[in-house]
Amino acid sequence: MAYLEVRGVAKSFGKKKLLDGLSLEVEQGECVVVFGPSGCGKTVLLRIIAGVLEPDRGEVWIGGKSVMNVGPEARGVAMAFQNFALYPHMDAFENIASPLRARSRPEEEIKQRVHEIAGLLRIDHVLDHLPKQLSNGQKQRTSLARSLVHGPSVLMLDDPLRNVDAKIRYEMRLELPRVFRKFHSTVLYVTQDYKEALALGDRIGVLMDGHFEQVDTPAAIYGSPRNRRVASLFGDPPINLFPIRPERGGDGAVHAQIGGQRVALGPRAAELAGRDCVLGVRPEDVAFGFDQAEGGIPVELAAVTPFNVRTVTLLKAPDATEILASRPEDNSLAAARGHRKGWARIDLDRALFFDAASGARL
Amino acid sequence: MSKGLLRRVIRGGLLLVVVLFFLFPMFWVLLMSFQTNQDILRTPPSLTFTPTISNYVALISGEIQTSVGTLPVYYMKNLWNSAFLSACAVAMSLVLGVPAAYAFARFKFRLGEDIAFTLLSFRFAPPILVLLPLQLYFQDIGLYDTYLGLVWVYQLITLPLILWIVRGYFEDISPDIEHAYRLDGHSWFRSMWKIAIPLARPGIAAAGLLAFIFAWNSFIFALVLGSSDVQPVTVGSLAFMTASGIQYGTIAASLVLSVIPTLVLALYTQRYLVEGLSLGAVKG
Amino acid sequence: MADVEIAMSAGAKRRGISFQRALPYLLSLPALLVCIGILIPFVTAIIYSLQRYNLAFPDSRAFIWFGNFVSLAKDPAFWHTVVVSLEYTALTVGVELLLGLGIALLLEKRNWVNDAISVLLILPLMVAPAIAALMWKLMTNPNFGVLSYLVSLAGVQDFKWGSSPDSAMFTVVLVDTWVYTPFITILLLAGLRALPKQPFEAAELDGVPRTFVFFRITLPMLTPYILTASLFRMLDSMQQFDIIYSMTQGGPGDTLTVFQVQAYLEAFSFSNIGRSAALVIVLWAITYALSTVFIKNWLKLRARAHGAT
Questions:
Q1: Complex ipTM > 0.85
Q2: Where are the domains of chain B?
Q3: Which end of chain C has a smaller Cβ tally under 10 Å, C or N?
Q4: Which of B221, B226, B222, B210 is nearest to B278 (CA)?
């Protein structure tokens, strides 16, 4: 039995149904990321697990026992809030010490453990500061220290890096897994940032429309998304989606019209003839060149955006279809701005096919 | 004179008239309190006289010298009554109102809204509506002219104020702070006691002081439900004025003593005055 | 970690969800008791109003249902009470609103002089109305009152202030104005300072004349504050007791017998409990109607106040 289980939890606010029969299992020591767009109910789910919010239906089980009749102070769950929720009238030391004081630990032990965790998170030099004297990064780490200090069985982090500077965010993305491993915590991590999700999670739960669309390892989510919505959420720039109707040609191979060009879809599309589909191709699987290539689509180079490590090109096919292609940093393309003609070749081995109506992957 | 300067002069002049109007009565009565009856009765009234503290001495010592002998005066008891009644009423309202305000701020429940608005309506209802029946009840159960009876009825004045103002301050505290405290392992009571109340303390203090002022200034409550035992200064001053007849300086001194406490408190709470007077409907 | 097991076995299970659910009710129980404690006399007052009940004639106490109200409606003294109350309310609210608004406009700009004056103006408001009336009684004493003297300098001899039916209303309105104008002033001042700056800056840039700005921009935006202040004052003036009773006890004669004063006299001078209760019920009905309008928008007002800060 998993350590943390959410069984069929539902919660509505007025007429709005936010969570609809949600279920999730988290193994002990695992880090599961709850990922989804803003407003999809991630924070509500955390609050229900924490016990500060009552679900309309469903149960939460921790350590093999239902905690539905247990108050938040007794569930053994710790939470680091998005806006830190530090106690404004207590200094950082007291903030972190709070869970230990709740458990009536001796003063010596409190001092030792607070300093230990503060040292680990590199805030032991500001322990006597009040929250308003701390920077956002320090507040976030104080909040994290508070939730870790008593070694909770379940640790929940509600988008902790959202309100923090980009530089610190990168630092913490490296540090957090280290901290989790040190404490062997079972972690539930909420974020809206797909890169964070891919980096931190042992598994990712994609929360949409009140339930989990897919719960899988990051590789599986990225490489084998269950449907086109999940596929669209991961990847920057987002996945190219082309509606197609594959047809079996005279030579037995399956073809489709992409960008006005008849392209062979390869053996993977064998059963798709006659079905309305959507072809999903990630920009890194689209190659752009000025020389004609076999199976390529004639396009016009509409825009080039060089990012730090990648260059993203916007290509326009004759029938106005737009294709995004990305490749490792390539300054030569920058000189090519201004509607030069070229060819786009799709790596069909890595393409994804979705059913047009349901969006499910085929 | 330029238009701007003329405007400034007119504005200054108007403000001067306004300030004179509103401050003059208090100034004049203060002056009277340091005058002997002789000085007071002299016409025309003049600003030059030799001040005397005999009026205050009379009040504090409890005796006035009149032309027909000494008159006992219980004014100090009135002052004590005002202070005691107001303080007890505020204390009771804090004990009753702060937890209720917490409940209304943190939990949304129908009964809570009903209670809150019923208490609000007390602020706008004519007091004699309840004072009249209470007078008859109190006489029957022996609460007439007692501190307990009046402190209970003073809740009509102090409880709505404290409830509505403190509720606002609790609502201003982010609920996440208390959630975090609960998740740390503390009970709901510790959360209210160690987090909510300390963070709302300025509002609670202000509400308490304002409630004290309004309780002190009340008149009809003690008039109907009290008699000489528990008479506060508001009722006592009227009786004093009628009784001591010609002791105008002493009367003036009694009026001065009656208002000094509230004026001092008012200076402390001026930041919260607008909010208190409008029961939280308007923030100053 | 065995946190959950430890906590749950330590009896925290007792404090389960059902206690959490009952908590708000438990916390507000004392306040609820106070409400009930006040509602009981209220109901009693209603009962009295439906009875012929005079303490001097205890045997004749009986239910006469709407008899008191009918007798009131037929009594010219009752209508006199209504007229006097309305007159008092109209005069006080009218004068105080105009004066209060004027003063607020004078003090609008923040500088040390205006701020000091604002503080000083609070003081009359903090004086007990009953005491304020006594202060003015001293000042208007015909023998030594400084106001009588000053007025005589202006050529008006022997102004009777509160002792004459002609000038009694003027006198109490004057006292009321002295006490309560600052209330309107500080409320409207808070309102003026809470108004957004952009419309005024835009008007200044466009060269709009100041009277236009005042009547078409300032006043409309101040309306909620003006309404709040007016409703508070109207409700208080309709029920005014302290000032009038301290000044003249409703006299001279029946010149100033507003509702609560008259009800008091009925009950405690004429021991006519039933009639007094009926009178108060009528007053209550009026104030209830007025305050309902107010209370309906109460939460909206609070939300605006909380959002604005």
A1: yes
A2: 3-72, 75-277
A3: C
A4: B210
